Amino acid sequence: MQSSITCRRILLAAITMLSLTTLPGCGQDQAKSPVASKAVVKQNLRASSLLGAVSNDAGPIKTGSVKLLSEQGQELASIELNNSQRYEIPVPPDTALPVILSYSPGPNAAKDQQLISVVIHPDASKYDINPTTTRIAKQAKAMGGYSHNNMVQAAESSGHVPDANKTTSGFRGDPTTQYGGWH
Q1: Interhelix angle for 148-158 vs 131-142, to 10°?
Q2: In the chain, beta strands by DSSP E
Q3: Which residues of the chain have pLDDT under 70?
Q4: Dmax of the chain from CA atoms?
Q5: pTM for this structure?
Q6: Virtual CA dihedral for 7, 10, 16, 17, nearest 10 degrees?
Q7: Of all helices (H) and strands (E), which one includes residue 46?
């Protein structure tokens, strides 16, 4: 009987000690917690210029302007398309990410005629601007901002893959070329 009571006391003491060490608070200094915070780390774009092509559902767009904008809408650089859908726009040093590439057919163009593409990765320099990039950017913004995760989720949800082609079962061919080779 005595050993049974002793075992219960030891077990109760062990449970008490375990609960005190795993529960947050209880008078402990929260700053010493080993849990990492989810602070957003701002990065700068490393490329000296961004390049790509501008198109819409009808095909290549060869006139208009491309602007590099801060996330707040401040113009950082601008170029005109000169009878070519290709653009190359200079990037000012120490440009903080994310930035937005904005195409407009003219200075008084309606908002629905403007196209955008969002730059979130510091080392990438090639960005096309088209209706798909515009949908992805708008959806990511609506999800809370231009983070990597929001951009990926927006891209995945805006893809047009038929239900019958969402798995690799029965696929006969090079699996690295399925879905456009982006896997």
Answers
A1: 130
A2: 49-53, 55-56, 59-60, 63-70, 75-82, 86-90, 99-104, 115-119
A3: 1-41, 159-183
A4: 96
A5: 0.66
A6: -150
A7: none
